[in-house]
């Protein structure tokens, strides 16, 4: 049985939203969250563009470190650099204040930046509780968020970064790390910023960082987190100088997987060759989370769908132990499900239930138009084969995590 959980006090007692004439009616209550065949969802190991023939990404990375143009640092040192100082919660959450919850805001500049106007948008979130069963790294609570950069609404997905933050509960400090990919060779190492990237979701597991990018899964090794020696424009190595587009730190990609073979991607129409492309009956990694209910753990991905989407959305489990650097065999999903929700943004599981961040039903808790950019999202809960059902309780729930536009994956 699935219950929609929402904390919409402002909508219960506030004014009703106006409904646009062309707004679709959403009614996902009572639909089934069902298992489906997983064998058709495959991730194919792909080469790193720009790395010389016969070389591996790690060889180039080690070559850059051997030249002394970059310095290896820890995630904790980036967080404790205090390059940026976050703030306590600074926006209305809609959560009943009698419930215990916590959070933070980025500094004012990061809080106001936008990929629709020469800036950045946050996307995925992971933390030290994913990275290590203890919940901490060296005794510290760390968080990571992905961001993508855009010039305008029509010119986005230009590059990506990761923020590494430490929370003491009263202080939030963090630094920004540019995502880069190695090029060249061990003898002549080079790197450039990762492009064609939305950085939808992220999982931190051990020393590895998995970044979902729609039609692609990127892998980074945090043992090779770099401090560059020049905070200047451009990305790469020039003589004895390294730079990462005005970032103090850079993280190089060590491996990548695609939802298509190279031949399939090359044969696609020019406008369908993006690493983010998810068209067709293929895996689409729009969100990513870690399932620690099994050993070894699994990755869980979800496919985004907008309000007009009519077919159920894919939720897929992947065998984490086979996904890594140097792999030559395709990775086939271990399980897949159909999620009949709209606007799926994030999905996680505790081994029994699946929790999905998606649009609420029209009219639920006073939401007149769930597609409105100011509407809260609902958290849906289900077991495979279970019914979706709206909770009759109109009070705010402690399992709620409402979000406001731009829509972001909701932690559960």
UniProtKB/TrEMBL annotation:
Residues 1-20 form the signal peptide. Keywords: Signal. This is Secreted protein. It comes from Streptomyces actuosus. The lineage of its organism: Bacteria, Bacillati, Actinomycetota, Actinomycetes, Kitasatosporales.
């Amino acid at each position: 049985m699935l219950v929609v959980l929402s904390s919409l006090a402002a909508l219960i007692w506030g004014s009703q939203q106006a409904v646009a004439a062309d707004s679709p009616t959403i009614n996902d209550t009572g639909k089934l969250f069902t298992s489906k065949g997983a064998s058709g969802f495959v991730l194919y190991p792909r080469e790193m563009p720009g790395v010389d023939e016969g070389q591996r990404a790690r060889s180039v990375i080690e070559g850059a470190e051997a030249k002394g143009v970059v310095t290896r640092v820890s995630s904790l040192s980036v967080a404790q650099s205090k390059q940026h100082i976050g703030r306590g919660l600074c926006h209305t959450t809609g959560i009943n204040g009698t419930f215990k919850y916590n959070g933070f805001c980025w500094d004012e500049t990061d809080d106001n930046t936008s990929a629709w106007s020469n800036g950045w948008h946050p996307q995925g979130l992971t933390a030290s509780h994913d990275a290590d069963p203890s919940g901490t790294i060296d005794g510290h609570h760390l968080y990571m968020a992905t961001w993508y950069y855009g010039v305008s609404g029509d010119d986005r997905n230009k590059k990506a970064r990761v923020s590494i933050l430490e929370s003491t509960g009263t202080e939030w400090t963090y630094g920004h790390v540019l995502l880069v990919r190695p090029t060249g060779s061990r003898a002549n190492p080079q790197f450039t910023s990762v492009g064609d990237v939305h950085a939808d979701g992220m999982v931190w597991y051990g020393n590895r960082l998995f970044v979902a990018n729609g039609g692609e899964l990127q892998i980074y090794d945090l043992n090779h987190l770099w401090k560059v020696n020049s905070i200047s424009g451009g990305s790469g190595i020039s003589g004895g100088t390294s730079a990462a587009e005005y970032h103090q730190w850079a993280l190089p990609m060590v491996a990548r997987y695609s939802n298509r073979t190279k031949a399939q991607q090359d044969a696609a129409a020019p406008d369908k060759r993006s690493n983010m492309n998810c068209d067709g009956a293929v895996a689409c990694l729009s969100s990513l989370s870690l399932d620690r209910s099994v050993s070894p753990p699994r990755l869980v991905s979800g496919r985004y769908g907008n309000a007009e989407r009519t077919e159920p959305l894919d939720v897929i489990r992947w065998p984490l132990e086979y996904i890594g650097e140097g792999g030559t065999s395709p990775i086939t999903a271990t399980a897949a499900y159909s999620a009949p929700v709209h606007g799926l943004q994030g999905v996680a599981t505790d081994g029994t239930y699946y929790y999905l961040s998606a649009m609420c039903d029209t009219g639920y808790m006073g939401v007149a138009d769930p597609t409105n950019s100011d509407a809260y999202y609902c958290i849906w809960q289900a077991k495979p084969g279970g019914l979706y059902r709206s909770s009759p309780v109109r009070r705010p729930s402690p399992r709620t995590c409402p979000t406001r536009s731009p829509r972001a994956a909701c932690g559960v």
